[in-house]
Amino acid sequence: MPPPDLETAASDALLVDAEIDRSPPAPPGRSRAGLVMLAAAIVLVAANLRMAVTGLGPVLPEAAHATGLGPAGTSVLTTLPSLCFGLFAPFSPLLARRLGTERALLAVLWLLAFGAALRGLPTAAALFAGQILATSAIAVVNVLLPGLVKRDFPGQVAGMTGLYSMALCAGAAVAAAAAVPLMDVLGSWSWSLAASAVPAVLAAVLWATQLPRRSHGTRHVAWTVSGLWRDRLAWQVTFFMGLQSALAYIVFGWLAPMLRDRGMSPADAGWVLSISVVAQAVACLVAPWLATRGRDQRASNVFWIVVCLVGLLGCAAAPLWSIWLCAVILGLAQGALIALALMIIVLRAPDPHVAAHLSGMAQGVGYVLASVGPLAAGLLRGWTGDWQLVGLLCLVIGVLAALSGAGAGRAEHVRVISRPGN
Fold first, then answer.
1. What is the largest distance, in Å, between two alpha-carbon atoms of the chain?
2. Which end of the chain is least crowded, N or C, by CB within 10 Å?
3. Cβ atoms of 167 and 285 closer than 8 Å
4. pLDDT at residue number 240
5. Alpha-carbon span 37 to 158, nearest angstrom
6. Whole-angstrom Cα distance, residue 75 to residue 102?
7. 340 φ, ψ to 5°?
8. Model pLDDT for residues 276-290, shown as the tens digit of each residue
């Protein structure tokens, strides 16, 4: 049986509530001006969620040379974002229950700012430590912020989803484009990386104005979901999330170095990555709506994987004059894929409680799986000295992603038991 209302589910697709089992009501009494301030704070927070990731690739060669990192070290460095996203995401609901969602977000925003600033020290230890702190903080925000959006803007889900997605992509694009110019102006790759602490501090300061003045008690009812980890469809959703993310993080970590190896200037390589990320915002808004026009999402999932491979392999092998077009194609595909992967979590779940647990499985396991992509790409590049085997790796990942996407796109629900606990 297909889900009863694909369009309604699609509108909530990017807003899976990670605290749905124990979700407190929204604080009452917000004025219109208060909601505008909250929306502005959310947009600024969202803009920080990929800066620490995309700002590294354009200056990675300089960072690796200055710190003495070999191929293995740089490969691990580019793997940290997706690995931390997967490892630290499961701790987010626990942190929110102990501190409250707003205070938990404020705490990790300061952690993000500190981690970003720590990268200003031009040592390998500081670079790794800062990247781990920054991306672990982002992992928590990734999980908590969408639930807060869903809670406080129940009537404006689609609009806030669009603002959230566009801010995330805009922040990522700015970080990629500004990395090399900042390195030139500030005189150091490490100061270029540390500069992303500034918007994180601004986000934390603005977010501090959104802390509730008093707690609002509520009776929590815990729900249990059993059978999820034995369900074939749940694993197809998880693999689709992880494999398409693996391609994304190969692009974030290695697209700019690859283009530089092909003869493109460092600044232009950063701009290509930036243009690709900007294109993602357009697809994030359009692809989920298009995917719900048909009976299921199998064709959409496979189509966008094919387009992604065309754009990625074009960046690797096409003439340099065509790279900008290839980057736009790549960005459109990857924006569509992450939006579809998140939407499918909702569509394949029969109720919000299952959606929350399926989200935890798909993002936790999926991002750990995704971390293998940039690690393997870096090792292959260091081993062979060229990008041919990396292209083959992307092709293999793409084929597996298409197969899992075809399975995850079926209009069915995961077969689990969802019931209130004692």
1. 63
2. C
3. no
4. 96
5. 18
6. 35
7. -65, -40
8. 988 887 887 777 777
* Residue 70 CA, distance from chain mean position: 27
Q: Name which of 382, 400, 381, 355 is nearest 245 in CA terms.
A: 400
Higher pLDDT, 349 or 162: 349
Residue-wise pLDDT tens digits, 179-197: 999 999 999 999 999 999 9
Kindly state whether residue 26 falls inside one of the protein's structural domains. Answer: no
Calpha distance 313→41 (Å, rounded): 38
Residue 286 lies in a domain: yes
Contacts of 206 (CB under 8 A, 6+ apart): 40, 41, 44
Q: Which of 247, 185, 189 is nearest to 399 (CA)?
A: 247
Side chain identity, residue 325: L
Bridge-based pairing state of the strands 223-226 and 417-420: antiparallel
Q: What is the CATH number of the domain that holds 246?
A: 1.20.1250.20
Residue 416 within a domain: yes
Is 1 within the bounds of a domain?
no
The secondary structure element, H or E, covering residue 225 is strand 223-226
Distance (Å, whole) CA 143 – CA 73: 28
Is the pTM higher than 0.85? Answer: no
Q: What is the mean pLDDT of the chain?
A: 83
Q: Which single residue is written with the structure tokens 């979700």?
A: 23
pLDDT at 19: 46
Nearest to 393 by CA among 411, 368, 408, 374: 374
pLDDT at 7 over 50: no
Count of CA atoms in the C-beta half-sphere (13 A) of 351: 12
The string of pLDDT tens digits covering residues 111-148 is 999 999 999 999 999 999 999 999 999 988 877 776 67
In this predicted structure, the answer to whether residue 107 has a pLDDT above a threshold of 90 is yes
The candidate with the shortest Cα–Cα distance to 199, out of 181, 176, 164, 174, is: 174
Identify the domain containing residue 414 by its residue range.
6-19+31-213+221-420
The secondary structure element, H or E, covering residue 224 is: strand 223-226
Number of domains in the chain: 1
What is the distance, to the nearest Å, from the Cα of residue 67 to the centroid of all Cα atoms in its chain? Answer: 27
Q: Write out the two tokens for 141.
A: 């925000």
Element (H, E) at 417: strand 417-420
